Amino acid sequence: MVSGAGSNMAALLEASTDPAYGAAVVAVGADREGTEGIARAERAGFATFVTPFSKFADRAEWNAELAERIGAYEPDLVVSAGFMRLLGPEVLNRYTVINIHPALLPAFPGAHAVRDALAYGVKITGATVHIVDEGVDTGPVIDQVAVRVEPGDDVASLHARIKTVEREMLVDVVGRLAREGWTLRDRDVRLGSGPASTHE
Fold this sequence. Notes:
- Helix 4 links the parallel strand 3 and strand 4 (97-101).
- The radius of gyration is 17 Å and the shape is globular.
- By secondary structure, the chain is of the alpha/beta class.
- The strands form three sheets. Strands 3-4-5-6 form a four-stranded mixed β-sheet.
- The protein has helices spanning 7-16, 36-43, 59-71, 89-92, 113-120, 155-180; strands spanning 28-30, 48-50, 78-80, 97-101, 124-131, 141-148, 182-185, 188-191, 198-199.
- The chain is built from six helices and nine strands; from the N terminus they run αβαβαβαβαββαβββ.
- Helix 1 (7-16) runs parallel beside helix 6 (155-180).
- The two termini are 26 Å apart.
């Protein structure tokens, strides 16, 4: 799922073309028309769909329709790769969704994580892959990578370095989830539990 240019999505599409990766992308969806992410996926030959948020009366109605659109592709995992909408129970109760976030959660949740980290003056920030719940970046953490804040960094320069590690981590985590399976107990996500995902 994407809302913008889809650089993280593109990394997943490329990785999925290798049979050894263990995961195949069945479709790319977006919440608005005209995104470069959807265009990139179409150029690469992947199925796409758009469920515009603006065309629905409320969030619950949009989530219900989105759940149906996702379900048509029968995914084992939904990846929020730069998808900027909060998902409700209509989606989250049906699918396991993971998200990539440009900060070391629980620090700096929300849409302005890089700006907020700079404003706070931290010396280390980074990226997090987590399971999505109904909060704002509050779900159980799967993996994290640290990125040092350099003197003179602005939002653009810091975000560029974070995006590099984001892509690598997301590709690694999705592949491992597919190949090794995982378990979730309370907030503890363990990879390598076998081929079937389980929730305890």
